[in-house]
Amino acid sequence: MKLNRVEKALMNNPVRALVQRHYESTLMQQIGGRVSGERVLEIGCGRGVGTEIIFKRFGAQEVHAFDVDPEMIALARRRLSAFPCDQLSLFVGDAAAIEAEDGTFDAVFDFGIIHHIPDWKRAVSEVVRVLRPGGRFFFEEVTQQALARWFYRTFLDHPKLDRFSAREFVEELQEQGIIVGENTKEWFFGDFVVGVGYKANKTLSLILREKNDGTT
Ligand SMILES: C[S@@+](CC[C@H](N)C(=O)[O-])C[C@H]1O[C@@H](n2cnc3c(N)ncnc32)[C@H](O)[C@@H]1O
User: Would you say 193 and 169 are in contact if contact means Cβ atoms under 8 Å apart?
Assistant: First the structure.
């Protein structure tokens, strides 16, 4: 869902850009490394600060970035106008139904968007679908613990049902075939979770089913 006016002001703000540049992406890079020369997708790119970071800091060759809100995409187009169109594509889209073929990206970045999606597990399955086997998922997410805080409840607008803790988010990734292991960190008393996982060839549930059936 689109951000309300308060959250838009908080996101389209130099303080948010500072946190994203100097804290979140530093942590992501420490955990998961760079994506030099790779083809990358960013979901929920907002005004494009993350896209710029993916090019400049992470070294991507190509970035495809989308957001459900056309106003955000217009801001991102303005910010990123210097990048050539054979390296950057920006479009309006929905992370719960990503317009891309299966297995087309080396990496996917999520800077705090999946907690905005009512059917967030569907968005995870879309990320898994568009990643190539071995491709990496870089994520920073907001947990139900944060969403339950007075400020979030009073001023921001999020889906109310079926939100996730840090552990539940990572478990869902693993269940759907993104291996995270120890490559994750909670911060601000568990309000946020940052991490990097890679797409396995098989989902955890398939591996367990095969093990139980004795077929492996
Ligand atoms: C909290 S903001 C984060 C924006 C940006 N990634 C950042 O870190 O500054 C969440 C973004 O996700 C977008 N969004 C929400 N639901 C979405 C969906 N289903 N598909 C794509 N983008 C979505 C919102 O419009 C918003 O720009």
Answer: yes
